[in-house]
Amino acid sequence: MASVEEQAIAAINAAETLALSNIRLLEQMKTLLPKSAQGIVQPAIQLQQGQVSLVAGVERQVVRKVSAATRKSRKNLSKALKMANARLRNKNGTLRKGKTQTDVMRLAQKLKKKM
After folding, report:
1. Is the terminal CB of the chain with fewer CB neighbours within 10 Å at N or C?
2. Chain-centre distance for alpha carbon 44
3. What is the pLDDT of residue 57?
């Protein structure tokens, strides 16, 4: 199963491929234009190609792999939230009298610290 980061990078690659194929289509359609207009269109197409590659490259850099420590911490918090909810909720799922979601989160953080 692909991680969220891998899925994001795959989506970026797909968007870049689609944009570049659209640009190739424009290059083919350029031949339908009069000769005078072809000279104007070519620089615009080249600029567009550069922009697409630049944006895709920057987006790939923004998507970062999550460290093992962060994954472990998130997994522990998930377990702690389940435990805290079990302690602070009634059988029907409502919070116990006088307890709030804030209390659930505080308890979960406390339990996570002990893990």
Report:
1. N
2. 30
3. 83
